[in-house]
Amino acid sequence: MTSPTASPTSSSATGAGPHPRAGRRCHSVLNTLHSTHYFAPDLGRELGALGITHPRAVNFAARAAAMGAVGAGTVTAAFFSYRPETVAEHVPAVWRAAAPGDVLAARLRAVDTTLRRLLGDEAVASPEMAEAARLALRATEACVRSARPLYAAHADLPVPDEPHLAYWHAATLLREHRGDGHLAALLDAELDAVEALVSHTATGKGMTPKRNLLTRGWAQEDWDGAVERLRARGVVDAEGELTQTGVALRQAVEERTDRLDRAPYAHLGEAGVERLTELGGAFAQAALRAGAFPADLLGKA
Fold first, then answer.
1. Which residue ranges does the record annotate as region Disordered (predicted)?
2. pTM exceeds 0.85 for this model
């Protein structure tokens, strides 16, 4: 999860649209609310009722269901940062427990419960929520499917009728659109799955090593090996901190990601991006105040 306190909105030097970092910040607040359901008990409860009970299986099923009853190889490729053997422990077995369509319906029920609890019924039914949904959906009109498997799969799903679920759906599309582009940027930077996790954690904005190992399935020796490879490249120092080379590499990854994700926010326009960031930021902050995420989620330790 990206931090909701990224760079402020600003106009581009040419006046042709919002600055790329304005799009990054807008994505950040949208992704914050999107991600709440992964850490809430509601998703596990809904999928548990379908026979999917292991926390990793819940995660794989919920996010991959839009692609259909795909195999472990497809999920590993699309998710990027997970140990292939860990994925194979649960996929395709999850589809024997529940069909993808049933998983998607359960996921949406879980999102509804989670957002109502975190934000309250008044915010869910507010004009601001309806406005945020309209703006976010407008931004998705400029998303492109080519080489973006997770975005393309979710783009085939119907837009929910209720504004808070439509907003979450649009946030999901924008999250997966940026995420698919981000993987291309990581490949261009010649970072493998564990190296990407290690270097992101070293920025202080990624999940802690403990959380990464717990959720992604890698062992400590995998993590240590990635640290050594990054040290040999001059990306991290002897203490595992980013060097100047490492800082530049991670900045370059984010800038490439911004470029690949520019279209939705250029389509929405500077004023629209600013307003959506304002509305999304308020919802994200409310969710954070309500304890949406574990206190030890982010950091280097």
1. 1-24
2. yes
